[in-house]
């Protein structure tokens, strides 16, 4: 027994050599198995060089204990101490892989597979692995032989004899040899099946790409043909039995475990399709039905087992189709959407630990490289490698990727793959998650050569490489487009013009030549401005490409940049405030309205920043996309009008504020509908509709208030001879204005005390005429149309009446439609007291005591039916007209308003001008069932959003979906439909409104008091 001092010295020595449990290590070194070598410094130094000295020592003792006798044990120890290659390999494996230590303990002679050290042993290929598996005659023996070959790869990997790419290649070669051995076993077990067919095994995924992991599904596709004169059906059945047996040989768990699952789900139709097809059947499927991702998967297809001639024929038939995939509609969007779906499927708790699928992970590099290969591999055959790193190198050589970017991605990919390898090697389990346990992290860090502070250094390196991938994987596609039009450093390859055009077309640009001219104009030169643009544009191009009209996005960006290029804050805002650049890209490529508003006053781009106030916002505007309160807007407009010299100048300022705030509202709506990289799209479409309706209605009210003040101030000074109020009607009164809505109003006045009625009437009419004139003057600002057709007597009646005249008219002549229209009446500008009294006047009409009489109900229904038959435009599709069509806005609103007319007198909650509020109140009062209310609300919100979308996209109002393909796609993107899903959008709209119409027919036409 060692003395305390001796033990303390050993304890310290073991600590210095990297052992985390020196006490246990000391006891193992004192064990009989190591008695002959316990004092040998070579052993201790070799253990210290491993990833986990404790694990290596435990594994060594287990292997020694497993030796059948003392002679075998002595031979192992003698070889271990005398042969450094064996010592390094064996202990390296034992210190990195508990699972391979278990294998060596079960098969104590297999350590001898690590003794050989010949040139061919340094880089083994399929022939060497086939030789290593040759003696295996059954699935259990195949597993043992497979692990023995794996032991050789792992030993050279952990000692650095082969790098991560070579390791992945050898693992793929070992898989190839294993599939061949498994197929041979299956054929030997069923020679009659083998005689009926020719079967080829096509490796896909990482095995096909010659970049396999230690533990991974091996993706395959099976193709078969009848042998000689065999019946095709019988041949396919035989081939299916052989393929199924091959999969079981590799996948099933035995006393020696399994090898790896063989996954055939990448075959045509996936799990729902036949396991084996003929070559003609494969070709027919890919010609007619295959999706973009299936051609992307074929990039890595490689025949590995079975009939070589058939495998070569499969590749020759399908590979040409791979290089036509980039010509498919929405190609880039499909690939990127697939990537987003992969990320969305990761559990939230694992997202930050995912080496493979998470942001900044291996899949980001692979997707980016494959995207570029598919676009440019059509014309450049040097890019057609299935191996990620080889393809990345070829892309850099050809100028398709910048050399520095390629080098950064290469280094990051190698680090992430090596990390993944070491994690899997420990227990030979399929995982891509970074461990959380400190001991696991320490072993992992040491296995990667990080020895001083392995855990800290590992986390730092992981963050660094992941950050590189996150930063570059999107830009990788766009940055070389700038190189195509820029001056390059010596030796840097340029993306050829035809390749640049190919890439732009793949991104969805209809006019790639114009796009290249814009890029050149924006990024040419050596100025600081051009330098910042070169940094911004690769990212912006990606966001433009994510829209329905990337050409418009880039053109509009050039226009804004030309207008603001000399402004010091503009590019700084886009560069330094992450949200601003993406918000701008979304706004500029989403349609015509928002860019038109912005280009009339480009400084409004400051609103797209982080929301802070300051010099960028300028002129008291305030930054950010949150709508400003009505009180703040009115204060700003009235103050500006007071400072103006004339009414025209005052209204010009008011219309300028309206334009700026319309842009703010439209931009917020677009960003909320599209979402950003950091903020998902608004989940509640009703909230978006309410925000737009409220903001535009408030803005219209403030503009009218400012115009009224300007007119009165110029003609009469501080006080008009008559009290004057503006009453909002229709959507205006309901706080539901859209971007293209007119302002429905009534004008009411009341002569001031001592003022002659004729003078008052003249003043009131003058005010109305002047307000309407000033609001429609030609200007860079959008006009505000004031519509007074809902006034008593309609177009035949006076534009403005006294309160007493309204009272007399409504008392004697009021019709059902006017009570109906007055449900939306709400004062919006002018004399507040007069507005309140107007409301008091009309309340008994719109909320009749005792409810609406049956004859009045019949009249409302008759008016609605006549409107449906007469007002729908000729040729319009009634299933797609958002206002007058089936289940559209009018259907829902009249149903809700009839409920108000009948019940609001006794249910105060129904007394609101807002459709959704009234619908909710009717639901809460159990006048409309909850399910019916939900159906009506969904249809109303959808129809409103479609109208808003049409105005945003086309720049002019419309009640039907656009017929232009790009405009239709843009409406779809606003509504949350991805590329190529316009048909789904139309189907969903028809389905939603059809359900609403069913409810309307029951509640509006058939309900009784």
Salient structural properties:
single chain, about 1000 residues, mainly alpha, five-stranded mixed beta sheet, 10 strands, disordered N terminus
Description:
The N and C termini lie far apart (102 Å). With 1009 residues, the chain is mainly alpha-helical. 61% of the residues lie in helices and 5% in strands. The strands form 2 sheets. Strands 1, 2, 3, 4 and 5 form a 5-stranded mixed sheet that branches. Strands 6, 7, 8, 9 and 10 form a 5-stranded mixed sheet that branches. Strand 7 (743-751), helix 35 (757-775) and strand 8 (786-787) form a beta-alpha-beta unit. The protein is elongated, with a radius of gyration of 38 Å.
State mean pLDDT (0 to 100 scale). 91
Largest sheet: 5 strands, mixed
Give the number of DSSP strands: 10
What's the alpha carbon Rg, rounded to whole Å? 38 Å
Q: Write down the overall geometry.
A: elongated
What class do helices, strands and sheet pairing give?
mainly alpha
Please report the number of helical segments. 44
Percent strand equals: 5-15%
Helical amount: 55-70%
- Give the termini distance in whole angstroms: 102 Å
Low-confidence stretches: 1-6, 612-622
Summed up:
With 1009 residues, this protein is mostly helical. Helix content is 61%, strand content 5%. The chain contains 44 helices and ten strands.
